Amino acid sequence: MERLERPNAVTIVQAPPGYGKTALLSDWAARTPTARIAPAEDLLPRLAEGAGGTIVVDDFARHETAALAENIVTALGRPGAPRLVVATRSTPLLRMYAWDRGLDVGTVGAADLLATETELADMASAWGAAGAADLHAPTGGWPRVARLLAEEGAAGDYLRDAVLARLDRETLAFALALSANRRLAPAHRRVSPGTGAPASDAFERLLDAGVVQRRPDGSDQVAPVMAAALRRLVPAEEALPWHRALVEELGHDGDAASLAPQMEHARASRDWAVLAQLWTRHGLRLLEVDESAVERVYGDVPAAAIAAWPALTLPVATARAMREKRPFHDVQPVMWEAARRTAQQFEGPGMDHGGDLEKYIFFAATALVDARMDGRWEEQRRIGEAAEERYRAERGSVPDSQRYAWFLLQVFFGEVTAGESTRAKTAGRKVHLVSHDAPESRFSTAAAAAAMCALATLEGAASDAAYWGEQYAAVTREDAWGYGYATSLFALVRAMRAVDRLDLAAAEAALAEAGDPRCDFEFWPFALVPRTQLALLRGEPADMLDEIGHVVATHQGQYDAGGWGTRVVACLRVELLTALGEVGQALEVAESVAGESTAIVPLVARAHLVAGDAARAYELARQPRWDADVTPRTRLGRLLVTAAAAEQLGDHRGADAAFSAAVALSGTTGLMATVVKLPRSVRRTLLERHRRALSEDSLERLFEFREVFETSVEPVRLTPRERVVLKEMARSTTLQEIAKKLTVSANTVKKQAISVYSKLGVHDREAALERARALGLLPPLD
Questions:
Q1: Starting at the edge strand that comes first in sequence, how are the strands of the sheet with 10-14 ordered?
Q2: Which of 183, 315, 485, 601 is the most buried (most CB within 10 A)?
Q3: What's the predicted TM-score (pTM) here?
C-alpha cells in the first residue's frame, strides 16, 4: 500500500496470475478517495479529462499495444494529468515508453506481492482452510496457489495452464533443472547448455512467469509446488543437458553458495565422479553448507556407483545415518568403517593418485584413520610424514585447503591415540592454526579445539582448558549434525569438569549428551574417565569395571597396541580395584604401565595408603622427583597422598605443608574430587586445620563427602608363577596333577603352594581358594 502511495507518474503492479494484483488494487482504490478504477478501453478518454487524481487499470496486458502505450505517455505528460496505476502479468511496453519520455515509473513486483507466513496464515484463516501453517513452504507465499492447495489439495493443473503453458520447451527444461535446488546460485543466471538461448534470457522469462520467485532477502527459488508441476509436464531427460552445464558452471565459482546446487545437479545428472570429488575436497563442510542437501543427494546413491567410486562410501553412510535421525556419535563407527574401505585406495605414500594433490591428501587421511583404528602407530606416522612432505612440496602458493586441515586433524588424533602427548599437542595446535585460517574448515577447527580442551582437562591444566574452551565456543555450531563429533567430545569435557567440582548431577547430564564410548575411535579412553570418577564417587566401582571391559573389547586393536587407551584404562582399573578392596590386583595392573605413565604413581601410593601401609604410600608419593611430564592432576594426587601418609605417620608438620600446597593447587585447577579420595578421617583432620584456606561451600562439600575407598586390605603380591599355581589349584584335585600340567616337579609345585598360603595368610588349600576369591585373585564360584 505504501508503494502505491508514492507520487510516480506511472506505477506498474507486475506479477503472474494469482499473486493478488486485483485484490490489492481494489482494496487500495477503496481507501484512496482520489483513485478511480477504469477499464483499459476507457483509459485514454479518462486521461484526456485532465482531472488529476489517480486512475487504476486492472489486467492492462490484455489490451496493451505500442500505439496505446505511446498515446498514454503522451497524455500523462500534459499539465494536470492524473497518475496512472496499472496491473499486468508481463513486462509492459508502457514502462519502456514512459522511460523514453522521462516519466517517473514505480514498480510493485512479484517479490513484493508474495505473502509472508503471517499474511498467508491470515488469508488461510479467511478462506476457512486448515493446515495454514504448512502452506508457505511449498508455495513460497503465492496466494492463489496456496488457496488451491488449501481447498483442493493440488495446484498442478492451474500452474500448468496459467503459467507453464506460456513458456517454450527449452525454457521449461531449464526450469525443471533449476527446480532441483532449494536456493539458486549466481551461476544459474549465466549458464547455457551449449546451444539455444542464453540462460540469462530464460532466467528472466522464468522470473516474469513466477516460476522462479525472488525472496525478500534477494535470493531466488523454484517453489516446491512449481517443481512438482514441472516434473509432471517435462520428462527428466530433457533437463539433463542443463544439469550437466550447471555442474560445470557452478564448479567454476567454487564458493559456498555453489556447493549445494552443484551437489543437486550432479545427482540429477548421475555424475558420480563429481559427487565423489565434492566430498573428497570438502568433506563434512558440505554438512555445514546444507545438511538437507547432503541427505537428499548422497542418501540414495546406487551400489554400482559406490563400487566404482569408493570415495562415495563415507558420504553415503553419513547421509543414510542422517535420514534415520541417528545422532552423530551413534553413527561414528559406520563413518569410520566407511573411511577404512576408502583407505583401501591408498596404496602407500608413494602413490600419485593421478597427480591430484587434493585427492592424494584425502586418501592419505583415510589411511591414517585405518591405521589408527588398529593401533598401527608407526605406520600412521610414516603415512602422515610422507603425505605432509609431498603436500608441502607441491602446494606452492595456494592457501591451505579444507581437505588438508582434515588430514592434519587425523594426524593429531593419531598422536593422541598413540599416547604421544607432546607430539599430540604440537599437532593439535597446528591443525587448529591451519583450519582456523581456512574459512571452509570450521568443523576441523571445532574438533581440534574440543580435543585440545579434553587433553588439558584430563591433565588438570585449567588455564589451557579455558583457552581451548573459548576457541571451541567461537567456532562450533552445537545445533548442526555435522559438528556432532566435536559437541560430543566437549560434552565429555563438561562432564569431567562437573566431576572435578563434585557436581554429580551435572556430570550425569553431560554424559547423557556425550553418547556411548564404544562408538568413539579416538577419545574413548577419555570418555571412560568421567564415567569412572562418577562411579567411584557414587560407590559403584564393580559395575564400572564391567563397563570398561565392554568398551575395551570394542577397541581391542588399539588397546592391545599399548597406546593412550592402555595407560588410561590401567589407571582407571587401579582406582576401581582399590575401591573394591582388591589392592593386590590393583598393584599388579599398575605394574603393567609403571614405566609408561607418571599418572599411575599417586594411584599406587593411594592403594598402599588404603591397605594401611602409610610408610610405603609416603615413599611412593614423594618419588620420583617432579619433572615436566607430571601434570597438575598427578601432582595434586601425589601431594594429597603425601599429606595423608605423613599425618598417619605422625608427621603433622609435613602433612600440613603438603596439604597446604595441595589446597593451593586445587584452587587453581578446580580438582576438588581428588581431595575427597583421601581416607575420610584423615581428610577431616586436615581440613579442620586448614579451614581458612577454603571457602565455606568448598569446605562443607569436602568435609561431608562419603568415603570413596572404604575397604582397607593388605595387598597380596603373587608372582606370575604363583598365580598360575593358584589358578590350577582351583581346577585340579592334587598337587601331582598340577605338576604334570605345568611340566615341573611335584616338589616345585608344593613350594609355590606354601608361598601362596603364606601370602594369603592361610594354612590350607580350601582356605587359600576362599581368600583368593574374596580378593578378586580368582573369579567367584558359580
A1: 35-37, 54-57, 83-88, 10-14, 105-108
A2: 315
A3: 0.71
